[in-house]
Design goal:
The complex is a heterodimer of chains A (104) and B (154).
Chain A lengths: L13 H37 L3 H46 L5
Helix pairs in contact in A: 1-2
Chain B lengths: L2 H37 L13 H23 L12 H62 L5
Helix pairs in contact in B: 1-3, 2-3
The chains are: A mainly alpha (104), B mainly alpha (154).
Chain lengths: 104, 154
């Protein structure tokens, strides 16, 4: 006999959670990093062709500092998110394992 | 104790645990993104000395390319595409994370757009400066001519 308690389902899928984390890493972190890196290289090349002197060097340094900051913060934020997903998975797993048991 | 009330106790317990997880992650993400937000400043703090008017156009188009690509990338962020795979707290955490990254990168794009205005201003000043210089040169030539006409050759 199937037992159905309305509103009490807590089903979760650890594999799906891993897929979500992988998607976030690939799309948000790696994808963004790829765009930033490619454009930084392109822009530095253009600047080297059209701009000389100290102002150009300051621009390149400022631009690279911003890009590096963003990349580092995306990595840091991803660590927080992935730890959050593991913690949620653990919490859900605990209640799933405790509340649902096979009949004797 | 009924099955429902037994389950209710567990659900209540995990609920408060999840709230702690959410608030902890949100607080840390906020500190990472807010602190860095203030670090992203004026990329043209060194001025525009040493670049030509055409060079400014090159610079502008390079930054515009980055803006276009980032905006397109940000638009493609969509945690809800995972709705079939994950539910409840995991989906909530994922959507919050995607939104936080989206907001952070949008701030950077806004900063880049402001830098485009700086380039346009530099270009306007460049044109005005060139016109002023041309005007000065014309005036100098006229002065030289006038002076030459006044020279008494005896």
């Amino acid at each position: 006999m199937a037992l159905n308690l309305e509103g009490s389902s807590i089903g979760f899928d650890e594999n799906a959670a891993s897929a979500a984390v992988e998607l976030a890493k690939g799309h948000l972190v790696d994808g963004t990093r790829g765009i930033l890196t490619a454009n930084e290289l392109l822009l530095r090349g253009r600047v080297d062709n059209v701009w000389v002197g100290n102002s150009a060097e300051v621009f390149k340094k400022n631009f690279s500092t911003d890009i590096d900051t963003i990349k580092k913060n995306l990595e840091k934020s991803f660590e927080i998110y992935s730890k959050e997903m593991v913690a949620i998975s653990k919490a859900m797993g605990e209640i799933d394992g405790t509340a649902v048991a096979a009949r004797n | 104790m009924s099955i429902r009330s037994d389950f209710g106790n567990y659900a209540s317990g995990v609920g408060s645990t999840l709230e702690e997880i959410f608030s902890g992650a949100a607080s840390t993400l906020s500190s990472i993104f807010n602190v860095s937000g203030t670090l992203i400043g004026n990329i043209f703090s060194g001025g525009f000395t040493g670049i030509s008017e055409d060079g400014l156009d090159e610079l502008k188009s390079g930054i515009e390319k980055l803006i276009t690509e980032l905006e397109s990338h940000i638009k493609s962020f969509n945690g809800s595409q995972l709705e079939r795979a994950i539910k409840g707290p995991m989906l909530q955490a994922t959507n919050s994370y995607f939104d936080a990254v989206k907001e952070y990168l949008s701030k950077y794009v806004a900063g880049l757009k402001a830098s485009i205005k700086d380039i346009e201003m530099a270009k306007a000043n460049f044109s005005q400066g060139a016109q002023a210089a041309a005007s000065d040169i014309t005036k100098d030539i006229e002065d030289v001519r006038a002076a030459a006409q006044n020279i008494d050759l005896g």
